[in-house]
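User: Let's play a game. I give you a shape written as tokens, and you guess the letters that built it. Ready? Here's round one.
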């Protein structure tokens, strides 16, 4: 059976299919840090028809297939499985159209997010989706994970940036629905099934992205606040004064800020004093002077009321980039910390301070040498916690740390994943955030679309093991 399957794959996909040592190691894993797996075959599709042929063959021969984008996912969703096919979209990287009247961009799934952002800006428009992995992650991966990032507070998650999509179903059927209209209530909004389902229901091949008016500029402020409650007052004031122009409100606890600025010589500490919590605010209104003036108003009031102890309004883009560099240094964890257990939980914003205190205290009590860093997209109720236990070396107690953190998250009524998704890493814990009825419905949808359980087998849904 495997022999027939591989022959058919070779016949139908020709030079776009790779086997054995010809499969580069980068396709063996994503950023989750799990053990790499070399797939049976790698297909690097160039067209939607290639994707369709691959899925049809996998469906017929009941061979599992893992969709892959830029492989920056942190949940193990794009890690291939042994004996299965890895299906990479990285060669489907054309920008097919920019429509400046409709403010849309039609892209293939393999376009890197950063390329889509720059192309929109060159056309005088703006793509509101942004995340640290922008130059490595691909649009298909962003949509299938319903990615969040730095500007959700203003523009929403990836879902809000999509008007139309083309998807290939597990049996190879191509569903082309490249709608460009803002309003279209003709029947079910099918694209929503595939956005955020982490490649378990279909493979995204093309998308129509919704673009925004380009902000005149993005003014940044960096603040040191005495404590979490003061920071919440600052958030309320920023929302009130900046309104829809508030594009980011990113928070770093001292555990994160001190560790990163202390360990990375390229990063500059903004203040000589220590503060209780650090905030990056970005204001992207229509007028550059107003942007800065409004930020000054927010900071003036906050300093007067004691919500902010110190603040910087950078004088140049370069200075602003230096301030953002600390927040964006998350890509350096691997080098600085070694193996980590990482979280992207969500909790109601007012509970986030209590949760960080509880998590940092509980982890240090249990593992006294633990290094735990807390930061987050606080305006979106999304907290990150990254942890390494130096004394555990390569044998990190992932399960014990995860259970400890998720238990505290559950007590605050939170979610185990706000943006990275479930993949493999969080699959055993999905039941903490979803009811049995919700899980059963997810299982029914999966079975209806993928009766042989071949597409991204074993990911997301408990009981979907191959
Ligand atoms: C430094 C860094 C910063 C990050 N910051 C953020 C952040 O702020 N917010 C955030 O949400 N995430 C963040 N991430 C996580 C990651 O970048 C996102 O999850 C991203 O959306 C994954 O895109 P990708 O192309 O790399 O997908 P991959 O990792 O290749 O795949 C992710 C999932 O999508 C599936 N998939 C991929 N392509 C397709 C497709 N075309 N059709 C169907 N399924 C597909 C895969 O099977 C897998 O389940 C960060 C990661 C890093 C390394």
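Assistant: Ready! My guess for every position:
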């Amino acid at each position: 059976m495997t022999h027939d399957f591989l022959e058919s794959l070779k016949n139908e996909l020709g030079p776009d299919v790779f086997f054995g040592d010809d499969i580069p190691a980068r396709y063996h894993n994503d950023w989750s840090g799990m053990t790499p797996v070399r797939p049976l075959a790698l297909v690097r599709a160039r067209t939607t028809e290639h994707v369709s042929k691959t899925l049809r063959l996998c469906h017929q021969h009941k061979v599992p297939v893992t969709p892959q984008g830029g492989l920056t996912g942190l949940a193990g969703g794009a890690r291939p499985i042994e004996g299965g096919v890895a299906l990479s979209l990285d060669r489907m990287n054309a920008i097919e159209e920019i429509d400046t009247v409709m403010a849309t961009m039609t892209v293939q799934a393999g376009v890197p997010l950063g390329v889509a952002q720059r192309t929109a800006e060159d056309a005088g428009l703006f793509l509101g989706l942004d995340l640290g992995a922008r130059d490595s992650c691909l649009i298909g991966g962003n949509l299938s994970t319903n990615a969040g990032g730095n500007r959700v507070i203003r523009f929403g998650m990836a879902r809000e940036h999509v008007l139309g999509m083309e998807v290939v179903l597990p049996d190879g059927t191509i569903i082309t629905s490249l709608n460009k209209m803002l309003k279209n209530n003709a029947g079910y909004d099918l694209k929503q099934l595939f956005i955020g389902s982490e490649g378990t229901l279909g493979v995204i091949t093309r998308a129509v992205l919704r673009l925004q008016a380009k902000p005149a500029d993005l003014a940044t402020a960096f603040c040191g606040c005495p404590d979490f409650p003061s920071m919440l007052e600052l958030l309320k004031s920023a929302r009130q004064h900046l309104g829809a122009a508030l594009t980011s409100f990113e928070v770093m606890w001292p555990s994160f800020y001190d560790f990163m600025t202390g360990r990375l010589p390229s990063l500059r500490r903004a203040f000589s004093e220590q503060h209780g919590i650090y905030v990056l605010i970005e204001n992207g209104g229509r007028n550059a002077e107003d942007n800065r003036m409004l930020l000054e108003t927010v900071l003036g009031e906050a300093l007067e009321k004691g919500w902010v102890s110190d603040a910087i309004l950078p004088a140049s883009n370069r200075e602003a980039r230096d301030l953002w560099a600390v927040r964006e240094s998350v890509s350096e964890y691997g080098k600085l910390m070694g193996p980590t257990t990482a979280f992207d939980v969500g909790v109601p914003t007012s509970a986030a301070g209590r949760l960080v205190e509880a998590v940092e205290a509980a982890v240090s009590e249990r593992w006294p040498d633990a290094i735990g860093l807390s930061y987050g997209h606080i305006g979106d109720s999304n907290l990150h916690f990254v942890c390494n236990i130096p004394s555990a070396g390569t044998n990190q107690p992932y399960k014990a740390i995860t259970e400890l953190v998720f238990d505290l998250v559950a007590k605050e009524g939170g979610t185990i994943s706000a943006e990275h998704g479930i993949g493999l890493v969080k699959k055993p814990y999905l039941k903490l955030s979803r009811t049995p009825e919700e899980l059963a419905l997810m299982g029914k949808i999966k079975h209806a679309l993928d009766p042989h359980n071949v597409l991204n087998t074993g990911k997301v849904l408990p009981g979907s093991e191959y």
